[in-house]
Amino acid sequence: EEIVVRGVTEDLDQVKVSIVGVPDRPGIAAKVFESLTGEDICVDMIIQSSARRTKKSRAINDISFTVKRQDAEKTKKILETLRRRLNAKEVIIKENIAKVSIVGSGMRTHSGVASRMFSALARKGINIEMISTSEIKISCVIEKKNVKKAVEALAKEFNL
Amino acid sequence: EEIVVRGVTEDLDQVKVSIVGVPDRPGIAAKVFESLTGEDICVDMIIQSSARRTKKSRAINDISFTVKRQDAEKTKKILETLRRRLNAKEVIIKENIAKVSIVGSGMRTHSGVASRMFSALARKGINIEMISTSEIKISCVIEKKNVKKAVEALAKEFNL
Ligand SMILES: C[C@@H](O)[C@H](N)C(=O)O
Ligand SMILES: C[C@@H](O)[C@H](N)C(=O)O
């Protein structure tokens, strides 16, 4: 399939939420998202990377996701309750973020589109906080203050 | 947009790679993927969740991704070299994994498809190692031995 990069998009209506240090065992991700779905909260991207071990060799993980700004308060309350139940480390909400994405098709990561995107942001000194990829969209969460610079850099890199 | 779940897919040709404890500063993600793109390595999903702090309050992060099995050895060598250069903690390769995905459209996570997927896997006692979502695909990395059980559970949950 041909690699086509069609556009750059920005989303300023997301906040980043992480529940940190949850037990890495079956059923945890399910509990987190059932608690939100039940409350009609709009979750955009969900990202969970590989687990790690605590000093006592317990397997733990962090689950990060983004929700609409209007849902930040409610999400925080729900997750704080869950955090106590699961004995997780903490709940972090970061509001000053933006999601920038390259959209297109055939963008399997070996095509180099992802590394070009990361390099374009790096050259502007923009730190990448979260990454999520699919064939049609490669998204990076960055600080909100950098969004204009990021979109310009990406439009330039991909001739858009 | 209407939520449509069209199918369950499995990918047994992926291995999970993580470079753990890289400095969380601009340019690191770019370096990681430039080093792989340059070697023609086929990267499938890239996942990076939120950064954390070391005891000395240095910001670090882990970058996880999957590559084709045939590229595992080469990837390991490239990343080990990079790990030393970046003074990152470790490179972890896990081969006994499978990626299972729900594919469809309009699957923004608030639709509840993601939490139903996680719950279906949890009910079978299947641990979810990595999560990545998009409008058209929600993917979970699990242990390879669980793939048959996972696909059956998902097909049942979504009437496929
Ligand atoms: C951390 C969380 O994803 C857990 N591994 C689960 O399967 O639910
Ligand atoms: C960790 C890595 O993604 C880093 N934050 C970067 O921007 O490259």
Low-confidence stretches of chain A: none
Helix content of chain A: 25-40%
Instruction: Indicate the radius of gyration of chain A in whole angstroms.
Output: 17 Å
Amino- and carboxy-terminal Cα gap of chain A: 20 Å
Please state roughly what percent of the residues of chain A sit in beta strands, choosing from under 5%, 5-15%, 15-25%, 25-35%, 35-45% or over 45%: 35-45%
Q: How many strands of chain A?
A: 9
State the largest interface.
Answer: A-B, 57 and 57 residues
Name the helix and strand elements of chain A from N-terminus to C-terminus, one letter apiece: EEHEEEHEEHEEH
**What is the SS-derived class of chain A?**
alpha+beta
Number of H/I helices of chain A? 4
Q: How would you state the average pLDDT of chain A, rounded?
A: 93
Q: What oligomerization state is this entry in?
A: homodimer
Bound molecules: threonine
Largest sheet of chain A: 5 strands, antiparallel
Tell me, briefly, the overall form of chain A.
Answer: globular
